[in-house]
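[Q] Does anyone have a clean structure-token version of this?
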Amino acid sequence: MRNPYRNVFGKVVALATAVVLSLGAFTSCSSDDASTDPNKTTGADPNAKGGENNPVKIGVVGASDKYWDTFKGELKDEGIYVDIVDFAEYPLPNPALSAGDLDLNQFQHIIYLAAYVANTGNALSPIGSTAIYPLTLHSQKYKSVAEIPAGSEIAIPNDPSNLSRALLVLQSAGLLKLQGGGTIFSTDLDVIEAESKVKVRPVAADLLPSTLADLAGAVMNNDWVVKAGLNMEDAIAQDDPSDPAAQPYINIWVSRPEDVNNALYLRIVELFHSSTQVISELKEISGGSAVVVNVAAAELQASLDKTVADTKANS
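[A] Here you go.
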């Protein structure tokens, strides 16, 4: 590198200056080799959140779903390290997030989160959406709703949020009628038997496929449809994900309230939606039923707030 001060300060000063400038050039070149993409955290402090020694902990139910491995690898390529923490039961990830054992979770829809917030008083917030998974009616005995004889019995999930949703599916299929037209809080006690074609039997979700041999049908979510070896295309009825009333069934990314504007967590949600491979694998494990949606966090929070209020009013 040329030194313009050589003739003023002499050879000694010139040599010292040349050394300093050379070191500066070396440092500059090293910096240029690092990623300048502001969306990447490569080269960041490995002990900072999202660094190699301090990964973002994401609680899920079903960590063996292959899209999680794909997503984890893609995040690592972006310089973001995560741990996918698996839970065997749905009631566990929200308390773990509230307690600070997780940074995020992703396993539930708005209604499920609303019930947790209303019943515990622990505030959690949606920061992004994933997909809506339709609830479907399957039968081994009948190929259409019209074929189901009057007085038949249909199995439905026994957990409160999916029980209500299953009842709404059956009502929309013309198989039963609910008091007041039905809501997301309807129970089997709201079925108007005199005006309904079928009866319902609440059953644990994992047992629903086994009822198909004996009952007229069963309303199941995609997890149990796929695990039972059934095809989503064979469903004889389902709810409509495009219906605005279906918004409370949107599955969501969830954080603690103080982290709703956390740039790293929001980047994770953004990368989830921008990955064609992750989205493809998510749809694959749902039997092609998942309807991916990208809803603003503010809209999700408004839906959660309303559902929490409705939950408290109906409790």
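[Q] Thanks! Anything notable?
[A] The first strand starts at residue 56 and ends at 60.
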